[in-house]
Automatic annotation (TrEMBL):
Disulfide bridge map: C51-C56
Active site as annotated: H453
Name under which the protein is recorded: Dihydrolipoyl dehydrogenase
Root EC class: oxidoreductase
UniProt-listed Pfam families: Pyr_redox_2, Pyr_redox_dim
């Protein structure tokens, strides 16, 4: 073992949370190391975590490719553009995705160099006294000591005991981002964000897609009206979403997966050629902590932290998917930055009430703040204003009239409590709500902001006006 290296900050994990923490710490003048164990498809170390390698970015690359193909077949006709016999070359599509992934994972390595973050490639374990031992890919071990250690180990797919990943027939997100051909019939367990996004990719390319969801409600975390509209649109696209369907058995027989589930009508079996299991993710805390560190894990392996991401052990922090809160890259970004700033004595802070959620399906789904269901449950008085994209000139001109915007404001103060959107481009529009809520703005503030015409953002303007029943383009 080589001599122990000393750092002001050691970050374990170079995903969104970890690389933000490392770069910000280095910017603030701290001697920083960042350790990551991941390898890319080429077998070489790849920074950027789940997000850049097998999550946010590759899924969006495939969503974009598949959307082009779908539009070519379903939307172009009404523009007078014919594309007879359109074909998809899956190898080219996956190659494009891999190129984008490589560009971004390589980009993190460059950012580390530019900011003087020292990368270590291997598996890191925290030992008592803020010592981190790194088992490098060549088998050697090095020892680092940090005044501060930030745990940013991220998350892994949850595996079901009766549907073990074999990476050929039963896959997780990694497999479903790398199919070499369009599956004839793709089964998906779990109608959450990942199941819906990856199910959409392969549906648009021609798969029959059946999504089995154990819960009785569709997208329970979203506003109920948004979820209802989205479900209707997904049905039109041919996504077969079966609710209240509890899967109990999955068997691979003759290159097919037999998936048995029970719903209100009894036991049923579907036969698919690929099965994506997307039932959630769990904190990747296995092997991260040696005995005696004092860092606590809950029953699900989530690292326990306070509101400042501090573990309660002197100098040990944790951020991103491996701690409580939504498993979203941008939540990790903010926690990583906040912790680096807190270590430097600055007032680092994350406003968990204004973290936006986005599902990149067609239509897109996005929201920030509270839903009507939540406000009803906690007894907050509220008022709402909605506006449909079908009455927005830009959306109709784009051939994308589905969906609506809903502004929720406090009934007495008019302060915006939530913005809920379903429709084209809402992944970008939701930030009007984030900004308004960050500045404690009201529905009236939103209604008085001049929005360019014709844009999709006019739906927010009209929805804000509708809160006080003064929308111009619809009967109030
Ligand atoms: C298919 C898919 C699509 C997604 N799409 C979106 C999206 O559109 N928007 C969004 O906000 N979120 C999305 N997510 C979620 C997002 O990817 C995660 O929330 C985010 O990556 C979490 O960041 P993180 O830094 O906490 O962890 P991770 O990104 O998981 O990174 C953790 C890193 O730490 C490394 N590591 C773990 N333990 C150790 C150890 N002991 N030693 C060394 N290295 C270690 C891992 O190898 C990994 O590289 C998606 C996820 C998936 C799977």
């Amino acid at each position: 073992m080589s001599e122990q290296q000393q750092f002001d900050v050691i970050v374990i994990g170079a995903g969104p949370a970890g690389y933000h923490a490392a770069i910000r710490a280095a910017q603030l003048g701290m001697k920083t190391a960042c350790i990551d164990a991941a390898l890319g498809k080429d077998g070489k170390p790849a920074l950027g975590g789940t997000c850049l390698r097998v999550g946010c970015i590759p899924s969006k690359a495939l969503l974009d490719s598949s959307r082009q193909f779908w539009n070519l077949q379903h939307l172009f006709g009404e523009h007078g553009i014919s594309a007879k016999d359109a074909k998809i070359d899956v190898g080219t599509m996956i190659g494009r995705k891999d190129k984008i992934v490589k560009q971004f994972t390589g980009g993190i390595a460059m950012l580390f160099k530019a900011n003087k973050v020292t990368p270590y490639y291997g598996f890191g374990t925290l030992h008592p006294g803020n010592i981190v031992k790194v088992k490098q890919h060549d088998g050697s071990e090095i020892e680092l000591k940090g005044t501060n250690v930030i745990l940013a180990a991220g998350s892994d797919s949850i595996e079901l005991p009766f549907a073990k990943f074999d990476n050929e027939y039963i896959v997780d997100n990694v497999g479903a981002l790398d199919f070499t051909a369009v599956p004839k019939h793709l089964g998906v367990i779990g109608a959450g964000v990942i199941g819906l996004e990856l199910g959409s990719v392969w549906k648009r390319l021609g798969s029959e897609v059946t999504i089995l969801e154990a819960l009785p409600d569709f997208l329970a975390a979203a506003d109920a009206e948004v979820a209802k509209t989205a479900a209707k649109e997904f049905k039109k696209q041919g996504l077969d979403i079966r609710l209240g369907a509890k899967v109990s058995k999955c068997e691979v027989k003759k290159k097919e997966v037999h998936v048995t589930y029970t719903d209100s009508e009894g036991e049923k079996t579907i036969v698919v050629d690929k099965l994506l299991v997307s039932v959630g993710r769990r904190a990747a805390s296995k092997g991260l902590l040696a005995d005696g560190t004092g860092v606590k894990l809950d029953q699900r392996g989530v690292i326990e932290v306070d509101e400042h991401c501090h573990t309660g052990v002197d100098g040990v922090w944790a951020v991103g998917d491996c701690v409580r809160g939504p498993m979203l890259a941008h939540k990790g970004f903010e926690e990583g930055i906040a912790v680096a700033e807190l270590i430097a004595g600055l007032p680092g802070h994350v406003n968990y009430g204004t973290i936006p959620w986005v599902i990149y399906t067609e239509p897109e789904i996005a929201w920030v703040g509270k839903t009507e269901q939540e406000l009803k449950a906690d007894g907050t008085p509220y008022k709402t204003g909605s506006f449909p994209f079908a009455a927005i000139g830009r959306a109709v001109a784009m051939g994308e009239p589905a969906g609506f915007v809903k502004v929720i404001a406090h009934a007495e103060t008019d302060r915006v409590l939530g913005l809920h959107l379903v429709g084209v481009g809402v992944s970008e529009l939701v930030h009007e709500g984030v900004l308004t809520m960050e500045f404690s703005g009201s529905a009236d503030d939103l209604a008085r902001i001049c929005h360019a015409h014709p844009t999709l953002s006019e739906a927010i303007h009209d929805a804000a006006m509708a809160v006080d029943k003064r929308a111009i383009h619809k009967a109030n």
